[in-house]
Every structure is written in structure tokens, then in C-alpha cells.
Amino acid sequence: MAETDPLRAAMIEAAERQLASSSDHEVATRAVCEAVGVSQPVLYRLFGDKRGLLDAVADHGYERYAALKAAQEQTGDPVADLHAGWDGHMAFAKANPALYQLMFTPRPWSHSTARDRVMDLLVAALTRCAAAGALKVEPQTAARLILSANVGTALDHIARPALFDDPALSHRMRDAVFSHVLTTTTAQNDADPLYTAALRLHAQLDLAGTEALEPAETALLRRWLERITQPGRG
Amino acid sequence: MAETDPLRAAMIEAAERQLASSSDHEVATRAVCEAVGVSQPVLYRLFGDKRGLLDAVADHGYERYAALKAAQEQTGDPVADLHAGWDGHMAFAKANPALYQLMFTPRPWSHSTARDRVMDLLVAALTRCAAAGALKVEPQTAARLILSANVGTALDHIARPALFDDPALSHRMRDAVFSHVLTTTTAQNDADPLYTAALRLHAQLDLAGTEALEPAETALLRRWLERITQPGRG
DNA sequence: GGATTGGCTATATCGGCGTTACGGCTACAC
DNA sequence: GTGTAGCCGTAACGCCGATATAGCCAATCC
């Protein structure tokens, strides 16, 4: 977090600019060096490698992504925030396609944590939904489903020449995944009330904790709840 | 289809081999040339460009993909075939991750038609479902949804260190998307009977055609059906 | 039958890339 | 003042994609 090196930040921004403007989504170390007026060895001292530079660019992209999300998730309704989060994700992908691919497409030997941190954000938003009793599955599982669908839809959007039927596709996918992850809002679909109640309590413990139980007791309770919501782990 | 140039095929296979074995999912034109015993100008004569070679590798990957699918979709039940198709897609991605990314990840300036042809295959499978009255939306829309979800899930699978919970995630996603695209098999969910009947008739016309109407009449009928199933297009 | 010509090949090369060894510079320690 | 340690730029290495050039071989034509 203490990213106070101005030179490092300048090189990251230059790299991101060149990544966005280059026609083949490629960036040359020489170009970013002479863009900020330094020579190549400083790049290798700061980032160690070209991959290190790209990882830093991806992490910087996460910072912007997180800032964009923090400026938006303010509603009291967590499922409304979840819907807005999906649309914000798609907007981010459409606005910065090259950076998006750098962040969310699998790169070999990548040490960037952008994707994992995005998923942490999503898990947090989903935990708030679970605390409100709106989640049918564990937040981790739901997050992985939602993020995968979001990435797939965004990459499809990037690959196409940006045809006309964009938002319809995205919203269709969003509804499809959400309806398999969220409880139906109109009629409280309690197919397995014990399961959903355990999920809800677990999320509440994650969010606020409790002072009524000792820490050891709370930990044991969490394990019991996990055994209810993850029956396969014995 | 008349791909009878053995040298071209050998170079494509060499490139695919090196792509799969290289740690960074990269391939060098020099390496594929000396792997088949020719020099670089023949590569540029045959493929014009490195991108041309990669496009050819991607298209060859589609050939294997299509062969794998043709050897499998034999059941009389089209929705069962659709489920098997999803699982086959995931298996293909798991078996050849580098080739999969080459085929399904957006590359700038790519002239490969692998992704489009995969979607054509999917549209055909979905048209069979629509002819059986099992589809709720147009085959094109359903295909784009399914393919996007499939790619997103497969890339998530590739990015992760291949943890344990693989098939559960994939099948969850599959069920989520399919249930928003297929009619519920247990109870014939005819929320909009006219719409679904129009879809079904359109698919039947695509599959078999009709001799009861003149060609011009059939064409007009198709346009009417499309106006029913795509009310936004005026 | 021998010269010619056109297609195809390999050699050699160019410019650019990622990466690093090396020498010089500055700033501080004693 | 002198030694020293860290930092920087210059220059170079090896690899890559792409190409100009020259040689080869076979078919063709007089």
C-alpha cells in the first residue's frame, strides 16, 4: 500500500498508457523507460523483470478497479449492490480492454494478485448478501461462479466488434448466474431452510462476530456451520 | 478443407507441440522451422506472418475440437448432447490449456475463425434443442451465453492451480446457464407459448425446411417468426 | 538438345527486443 | 582527503520476427 515511489508509479502509468494505445496489446521495456526519461537498468532494479512490470501494471489496474467499486457500493440493499457490481465490472472491461485482459486472462508465471483481490471484493459483497439471507450457496462458490461468468462475458464483448446487443447479453448472463446463487426475492425459496440459515449465520459471524460466545466456542461453531454448508468435506 | 500440404501440416503440428511444451505459452518461428528441417522464408511463404501461423494453429485446434465433438454427439436427446458438449468443452480446455487460450482468448489482429466456428457448432446443437421445443431463447443468443460461460469457467480452471472442486463449479455454471436457456423439462414451462412455438417452428425450418410452401413464402414466414422472437428489431 | 525462365529454397542480414556486464558518478564515513 | 558503497547510464549480448538476395532445379521453348 505504501506506494510512494514516484518513479515506479510513473513507469507503471507509462506502461499502462502504452499498453492501451499499442495496437497489439504489447509493451516494450525500452519504450516505457524513455517515456519517463530513465534507462533500462532502473526498470530491472525496480521490477526485476518485464513480467514484474506487467504484474505491477495489473495490480495498479486493481487499484483503479477497487476505487471504482468503493465509490459505488453504498446502497443499503446488498443484492442491488451486487447487480451494480456486475455492471461496473463490464464497464471497466469495456473502458480498458487491454488492461482487463492483463488482469483477468491467465498469464504463465504471473505473480499478480489482481484477480484474487477482485474475488475477495466479490466475496465480501456476497457475504453481505448472505448476512441478509439472500444467498443460496457459500460466498466463495458464488464468487467464483460470478467472476467466471463476468470474465467470460467481458472477453466475449472484447473479442466481438462491439455489436449492438451488448447490454442484453450481459444482463441475461447476470440474471442466469444470480438466480442460481441468490434466493428468489419474491417468494422466499427455502428449499433447505437449515442450509440457508447456516449460511446466513456464518456470514453474520464473518461480518460482525459475536461477544456472547468465547473465541474457542465461536471457532467451533464456525466449523459446525461449515460442516453443514459443505457436506462433502467430512 | 483440402488441407493436403504435408509441410504446412507438419509446421502447424510442430508449432502446437512447442506451444504446449513452452513454459510461457510462446512459440518462436525459428524453432518451428528447424523442427521440421526447413528455413524461415518457407514459413513466411506458407503463413505470411507469425500471426498467420498462430491462426493456423488455432484453426487446427478447432479441427480437433470438432472431431472430438462429432465423435460424441450421437444421442437422440439433444439436451443430453448439449450437456455432454459442455463437459467435452471443459475437458478440451483442461487437456490443452495453451491451445485453448490461443483459440478462445481475444488476440488483436487475429484472423482465426476458431471461435466463430465453435459457436456455429453450438448454434447447430441448440437448433436441434429448439426443434424439440426445449429452448426458451433464440439459438444465437443461447449460444453466445453458453460459450461465454464456458470460456469463463475454463479460463478460471486454467488460472487456478487445478484445485479439487473442479467438476462441481463447472456443473453449477452449466446448470445456471442452461436453466435460463432451456425450458424446464419436468413441468412444461410455457410462460410465453407463442414465443416458444415460434422458436420451435423456426428451428424446424432451419433443420428440415418445408415443401408445403413456396421458397418466397417460406422466406417471408421466417421473417415473421424472427419478428416474433426478436421484438426489438422492428 | 541446350538456353531460358519461373518458382522455390537457403544464406545472410537488418532492426528491435529483453536482459545484463561493466565503468563511472555521487554521496557519505572515517 | 581518501576510501567505499550504492546508483546510474553506456554498451553490449543473444534472441527474435521479418526480408533482401542469390542459388538451385525443373519445366519450357526455340
From TrEMBL, chains A, B:
The HTH tetR-type domain is annotated at 5-65
Any coiled-coil regions, as ranges: none
Which Pfam families does the UniProt entry name for this protein? TetR_C_33, TetR_N
Q: Which UniProt keywords apply?
A: DNA-binding, Transcription, Transcription regulation
This chain belongs to the protein called: TetR/AcrR family transcriptional regulator
Q: Which residues bind DNA?
A: 28-47
